[in-house]
Specification:
GO biological process, one term: mitochondrion organization
Domain Metaxin glutathione S-transferase: 173-236
Family: Belongs to the metaxin family.
Strand content: 5-15%
Subcellular location: Mitochondrion outer membrane
Domain Mitochondrial outer membrane transport complex Sam37/metaxin N-terminal: 25-144
Largest sheet: 4 strands, mixed
Order of helices and strands: EHEEEHHHHHHHHHHH
Number of strands: 4
Structural class: mainly alpha
Number of helices: 12
Strand order of the largest sheet: 2-1-3-4
Length: 319
């Protein structure tokens, strides 16, 4: 009986309905799903224990591979190849689009995650602080932030204005997203009816950008405007990462239902309190107006004539 080779893949843990929040981890996971690679996936809480301190990490017996450019060729050597149906031109397109996304989308992704202060303070840093154990929850966010700033400096060495860099990075990313949308058109996948490497690459970028609850969603909004790309991400998530997708959607629906019930239960009391507050405010304002003379109560002459004469005479006698 032949020995069965066990492949284990360590990846950054996922969230928001995704199996991982990391681009390279998502790319390997998607390719493995498309190609039918039998994997045991370990959601890691820290890459610190890996040989080179990075994820994804493919464990093959005593050996390890920890870069996409090494892992995917290894899968192909083992005859797990999602590109076997592609023509030579389509294979060339795979490499071209991989280079395009690294040049145009990756800088924007780094800016969104590690430089945009609102996203960093309200989403990214808290996420890593929760996902990682101490002291790694302090070490890795700082490390990734420094790497992102170093990338921006290498791309724009003469520009010190971060707003100018932001506009340039987002502009190039928006053009890239529009190009992807045009190229995909109404097809299910980029090279036909079955997903290939190019889909693993594109999905790995678009899925986190689309699904993360970004406080500053400038580029995310542009992606949401490309409706075919939104459907594309959902299609891959539902077909190939069904468990993560359904679990997240169920949790989100339950959370929305709880919020709705809480709102409904609070409504009668809230409405009553609003009415009482309005009445009290009206009475107070009326009393203040009368006491200060802003509003006077006038008495008409015909109302005085109705007063009994003897009451008036008696009143005069008293004086």
């Amino acid at each position: 009986m032949a020995n069965v080779e066990i492949l284990q893949l360590d990846v950054w843990k996922g969230d928001w309905g995704l199996p991982s929040v990391d681009i390279e981890c998502l790319q390997v996971l998607a390719y493995a799903k498309f190609s039918g690679v039998p994997l045991k996936v370990n959601r890691a809480s820290s890459p610190f224990s890996t040989p080179n301190g990075r994820l994804p990490l493919l464990r093959v017996g005593p050996s390890t591979l920890d870069t996409v450019k090494d892992i995917l060729p290894f899968f192909r050597e083992k005859h797990y190849n999602s590109d076997y149906i592609l023509s030579d031109k389509q294979c060339a397109d795979v490499m071209a689009y991989d280079a395009l996304l690294k040049e145009k989308l990756y800088p924007a992704f780094q800016f969104i995650w590690w430089i945009d202060k609102k996203n960093l303070d309200e989403l990214v840093r808290p996420w890593y602080c929760k996902a990682l154990s101490f002291p790694f929850n302090f070490y890795y966010p700082g490390k990734f932030e420094r790497q992102a700033h170093a990338l921006m400096h290498s791309l724009y060495p003469t520009e010190d204005n971060i707003s100018v860099i932001e506009n340039e990075v987002y502009s190039e990313a928006q053009k890239c997203l529009t190009l992807l949308s045009i190229r995909l058109g109404d097809k299910d996948f980029f090279c036909g009816q079955q997903p290939s490497t190019i889909d693993a690459v594109v999905y790995s970028y678009l899925a986190p950008l689309l699904k993360a609850p970004l406080p500053n969603p400038i580029l995310q909004n542009h992606l949401k405007g490309c409706t075919n790309l939104v459907k594309y991400v959902s299609r891959i998530s539902q077909r190939y990462f069904e468990d993560e997708y359904r679990t997240y959607e169920k949790h989100k629906a339950e959370k929305n239902e709880r919020l709705r019930r809480d709102s409904d239960s609070e409504f009668p009391n809230k409405r009553r309190n609003q009415i009482l507050a309005a009445l009290v405010a009206t009475v107070v304002m009326a009393g203040y107006a009368l006491s200060t003379g802003i509003v006077e109560v006038s008495v008409k002459d015909d109302e005085i004539s109705d007063v009994p004469v003897d009451y008036i005479l008696n009143d005069e006698d008293d004086e």
